[in-house]
Amino acid sequence: MKAGKNKQVYRYRLGVVAGTFSRFHAGHAWLLETAFSKCEKVIVCITTQSYAAKLNKHHPVEDYGARVKNVVRFLHERGLLERAIIYPLEDFYGPAIVRPDIEALFASEETFLGALKVLKERIRRGLKNMDLVVVSLLLAENGRPVKSTRIWHGEIDEYGRTKLK
């Protein structure tokens, strides 16, 4: 942990988080805020259009540029942008299996098993292990997770409020 004069103390120097970030919502904000609360810098991996097309999402995916713009806007509004490294994610693993300086991988409960696969590949390649920080899913007002699929289907809004029909 590093601390400077009047500076926040962070558990990790560098963390990584990944997502499609389509229809940016409160759950995305929760995941990002958790990562930034524990790291000096965070690599924010955003799936490219070509990689997102391979993920068989159950909803449309906004254009890559729009998704990056929404994430950058959020980070800027929270004063976190200068601590972010925006990374276009072209495959399942991204920088987590090539950068030895990454100390923590942030994943949701939903992506936990995939994160374990990333850790396993990192070790297989001879890199130092990193911590896996599992972030609980943010629940909508009806007690079910805030997810892009539910927003696209009109069940909830981006804040997890149930929409009236």
In short:
This protein has helices spanning 26-38, 49-53, 64-77, 112-124, 148-152; strands spanning 12-19, 39-47, 84-89, 104-108, 131-135. With 165 residues, the chain is of the alpha/beta class.
Q: Characteristics of this structure?
A:
five-stranded parallel beta sheet; 5 helices; globular; 165 residues; alpha/beta; 5 strands; Rossmann fold
What does it look like?
This protein is an alpha/beta fold. The chain has one domain: HUPs (Rossmann fold), CATH 3.40.50. It is built from five helices and five strands; from the N terminus they run βαβααββαβα. A five-stranded parallel β-sheet has the order 3-2-1-4-5, with helices on both faces. Strand 1, helix 1 and strand 2 (39-47) form a beta-alpha-beta unit. The protein is globular and about 45 Å long. The model has no long low-confidence stretch (mean pLDDT 93).
Topology:
Layout: E1 12-19, H1 26-38, E2 39-47, H2 49-53, H3 64-77, E3 84-89, E4 104-108, H4 112-124, E5 131-135, H5 148-152
Parallel strand pairs: 1-2, 1-4, 2-3, 4-5
